[in-house]
């Protein structure tokens, strides 16, 4: 009896496996990876020629000079991949908790330091391309492409350095910004700065004290969200710093075009 039960159980399991296999096969055939977006294709067009610089296939002084700039090029690309990490830190900034600000500042400052180090890394190797372009045996076309590549990458890294400095200033402003909780607001600071609590009366006034309040009446939105407008203004100022990445991307696109041409002229790549 036990043998029959075991045999029937094995048969049932085999039937389930056989019937489930076609379903998994059909699912694997129907579900495919989403097509790349225009932004992804644009990024790939920038990264692919630049990473090819270090994969020298012709051992010549010209190709070796191009490959020597690989550390700076890799650092410039890594900067662009690391920048969204810092942007994510900034999006999580809050103004209502001193503990949260302490923790997020530690992470933001660490990520900012990584970006600054990447903006400096390999820049000397990139500039060395300009010296290599003046070497003997380099024709005018190769020299032109080497100089164009060096100028584009060096310009991108210079912009990356300035971008990190600009973000650092905004981080400093956030670190010094007051923290408002449920028991305090920006309006409290305004009123506490006036010893007469917003009254229009002054010690030299001859008309006597009045009960009128010189402070304009707050709007209904500011009553419900007293600090929302101030925080929105700070956030808008901060995110304007990342507009510089548009010019960095342009420099990297130019560098990718000249990198591909330079590799082809020297026979350093099969593409």
List the helices and strands and how they pair.
Elements: H1 2-30, H2 38-51, H3 61-68, H4 70-91, H5 98-120, H6 123-133, H7 140-176, H8 186-192, H9 220-224, H10 228-239, H11 245-265
What is shown here, in short?
The chain has 271 residues and is mainly α. It has eleven helices and no strands.
Give the ordered list of helices and strands.
HHHHHHHHHHH
Unreliable stretches = 10-31, 205-213, 233-241
- What number of domains? 1
Q: Portion of residues in helices?
A: 55-70%
Span from first to last CA?
A: 70 Å
What general form does the structure show? Answer: elongated
Question: What is the count of DSSP helices, taking H or I runs of 4+ residues?
Answer: 11
Give the helix/strand class.
mainly alpha
- Tell me the major beta sheet: none
If you compute it from the alpha carbons, what radius of gyration comes out, rounded to the nearest whole angstrom?
Answer: 31 Å
What is the tally of beta strands?
0
Average pLDDT works out at: 74
Strand content: under 5%
């Amino acid at each position: 009896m036990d043998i029959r039960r075991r045999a029937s159980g094995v048969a049932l399991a085999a039937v389930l496996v056989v019937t489930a296999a076609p379903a998994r096969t059909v699912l694997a055939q129907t579900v495919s990876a989403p097509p790349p977006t225009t932004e992804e294709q644009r990024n790939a067009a920038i990264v692919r020629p630049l990473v090819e610089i270090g994969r020298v296939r012709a051992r010549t002084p010209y190709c070796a000079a191009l490959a020597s700039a690989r550390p700076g090029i890799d650092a410039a690309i890594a900067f662009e991949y690391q920048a969204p990490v810092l942007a994510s830190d900034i999006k999580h900034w809050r103004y209502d908790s001193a503990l949260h600000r302490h923790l997020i500042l530690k992470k933001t400052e660490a990520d900012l330091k990584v970006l600054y180090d990447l903006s400096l890394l390999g820049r000397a190797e990139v500039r060395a391309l300009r010296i290599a372009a003046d070497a003997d045996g380099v024709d005018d076309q190769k020299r032109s492409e080497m100089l164009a590549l060096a100028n584009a990458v060096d310009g991108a890294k210079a912009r990356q350095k300035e971008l990190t400095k600009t973000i650092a200033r905004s981080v400093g402003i956030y670190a010094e910004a007051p923290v408002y909780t449920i028991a305090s607001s920006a309006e409290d600071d305004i009123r506490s700065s006036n010893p007469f609590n917003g009254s229009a009366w002054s010690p030299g006034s001859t008309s006597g004290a009045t009960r009128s309040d010189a402070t304009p009446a707050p709007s209904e939105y500011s009553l419900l969200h007293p600090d929302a407008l101030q925080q929105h203004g700070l956030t808008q100022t901060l995110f304007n710093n990342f507009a510089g990445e548009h010019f960095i991307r342009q420099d990297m696109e130019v560098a990718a075009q000249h990198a591909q041409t330079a590799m082809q002229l020297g026979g350093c790549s099969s593409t």
